[in-house]
Amino acid sequence: MTTPEKPTIQRIATALYRRPRLRLALLLGVPLLWMVGVYGGSIASLLVQSFFKLDSFSGTVDRSLTLDTWRDLFTGANMSVAARTIGMAASVTIASVVIAFPLAYYMARYASRRTKAVLVMAVLVPLWSSYLVRVYSWKLILSADGIVSWFFGRLGLSGLLDAILGLPGIGGPSLSVSFLGQFLVFVYIWLPYMVLPIQAALERVPRSFLEASADLGARPATTFRKVAWPLAIPGVAAGSIFTFSLTLGDYIIPTVIGDSSPFIGLAIYSYQGVAGNLPLAAAFAFVPIAVMGLYLVGAKRLGAFEAL
Amino acid sequence: MRRMVSLLAALALVLAACGSGDEAVAGGPLQEIGEGEGAVVIVAWAGYIENGETDSAYDWVTQFEADTGCAVEVKTAGTSDEMVALMTGSDEFDLVTASGDASLRLIAGGTVQEVNTDLIPSWSTVDDRLQSAPWHTVDGKHYGTPYQWGANVLAYNTDVFGNSPPASWSVIFEPTDLPDGATNEGRVQAYDGPIYVADAAVYLKSLRPELGIGDPYQLNEDQYQAALGVLRTQRTLVGRYWHDAFIQIDDFTNEGVAASASWPFQVNILQADGAPIASTIPAEGATGWADTTMMHANAPHPNCAYKWLDWSLNPKVQGDLAAWFGSVPSVPAACEGNDLLGAEGCTTNGFENFDRISFWKTPTEDCNGTAAAGACVPYYRWVTDYLAVIGGR
Q: Do residues B105 and B84 lie in contact, with contact meaning Cβ atoms separated by under 8 Å?
């Protein structure tokens, strides 16, 4: 039965078949090297940097290990930058869920095949144009002489807009120079990343579950609360990872819209790019990493990774 | 004609070289310009060396390359720190367009070499006020040729201020009613770079002489805290701090900004669009910047580098660049007869205001070498504290 000379390719195949570990190493070696070497390595070097400090006289980095930089990080000013960013990320995420859920529910449950295709397109099309173009257009839309305030004026509601802008904390001279406007733009920009995972999760809820719930006498609200929502939670959590982390890391929108109050990304940029204070920038970079770490642990508990 | 010009230039170079032949200094600057090396590598700010790719009307590289055979290679840098790092870390660069904060550091570190002004025929055409400016002249030696300079002006809306420009920076620093009767709250802007602390110091210098502020870049702790106080008050007035020139242009157009610290660049563009914007330098004076083309101590292409130094002072180059950048030429002759710059270009960009400008330099702990360490607040603290001020702290 045995042929003395097997083709090389077959010998390799056999060798690989007999050695599963080698197979795995060949398959994952390069991606793993990338993840651990390039990605993990740069995070590690970032961590090491954060234990150096800036020499105040020469303005160069002093490469002896110290905790001074970490002490500098925990000042009121830096912490308020972090709180502002995390607060914005959280409110953008909540608002995205509130807006995206009904849309995703409609797309998954009621829309005809054709309508659904149109809606998916409508959600995705904005992603085809440049992020910068969209942000700059929003600046014009929300500006004092922009279409939104024109529209309020036409409806005779300028007083209402002024009252909203007069609110302490979120108001400002115009929508484009307020936290409120910044929040609107963030929600607009990241909304598609919330709609699609929720829709995917809802598609997987069998219709029979909802019918069974109704048959057992549950009213629509109860069915939603006890059946549809819990089964959609992984999708919501997955979407929230996108909206939360993208808002947390964004440093373009806060420079274009809003009152210039710094976000984490801007602070890191200033410390590194303007002051040449690489250690402090590195230490600050660990704030979003830590926040996202905690967030992912929470999301995993909610089953977010089952919906990806 | 072109060949004629280059012939004349070459002749001038030879004559200049002969003229300086008697001062032989071992290890000193080049004594005569030889054959070009075929290339010159320049570290420059973005937009400073244009070869017509961005806008075909703005090209001051192509002709130089044709005349000298030196191919120009540009490495753009975003910050002065980056420029210093590039120059100190490598021997592959010939020239750098260093601002006032970088130039002295480069000289002190021995990274750049003295230039022999006799080899630069256009040297005599340089503005007298710049020829021996302290940011490139040390112990009577010149370490480069002035390239361009400019002021940070107060831009204002003429619909709000009418025909009388604001006389003081106070319109953007203190809560006040503007000539149109409304408050300035939410209608003024300031620059979001930490160097803006110096603008507050310039304002305080005349407002509170008892603080004894001399150089706005050399502030002791008390003066620095007073400046931060001014900036905290300003935070309550400023809607948005500007960072990107084009965002500010949009804010003047669509947000009803009445006054702001600004650059001639934005003012020129707004005026070209017919916007009711003008600029002034108030009574207190202003901050500004001045850049110098400096030569690396180990420049690999010294002959081409000298040719570029001379070319960079060509009135046409200087005028075109000033029009492109909204800056002021280092050669007064450039102000006349330049189509791109226009008859009033130099005046608009601030030519008359040289004496009223505190030119930009990096604050250091030892007050730029004039005092003991710790006497002045260093730049990295300006960065942290100004970020906190903008964040409302």
A: yes
Least confident of A129-143, A240-254, B70-84, B211-225: B70-84
Would you call B194 an interface residue with chain A, using a CB distance cutoff of 8 Å?
A: yes
Amino acid identity, position B215: D
3-state secondary structure of B277: strand
DSSP designation for A173: S
Spelled out in words, what is the top-level CATH class assigned to the domain B151-287+364-390?
Answer: alpha beta
- CATH 3.40.190.10 residue window(s) in chain B: 2-149+290-352, 151-287+364-390
pLDDT in tens, A33-55: 888 888 899 999 989 999 998 87
Selected for mutation to probe chain A from B380, B382, B386, B389 (highest A CB count within 10 Å) is B380
Q: What is the mean pLDDT of residues A189-199?
A: 95
Q: From the options 3.40.630.30, 3.40.50.12280, 3.40.190.10, 3.20.20.140, give the CATH code of B2-149+290-352.
A: 3.40.190.10
Residues 323-362 of B with CB under 8 A from A: 362
Q: How many CB pairs (< 8 A) connect A and B? A: 103
Residue type, A25: A
Measured distance CA(B128)–CA(A196) in Å, rounded: 66
Mean pLDDT highest for which of A69-73, A201-205, B309-313?
Answer: B309-313
User: Long-range contacts of range B4-11, CB-CB < 8 Å, 24 or more positions apart?
Assistant: B5/B67, B6/B67, B6/B68, B9/B67, B9/B121, B9/B310
CB contact under 8 A, A54 and B380: yes
| Predicted complex ipTM | 0.80
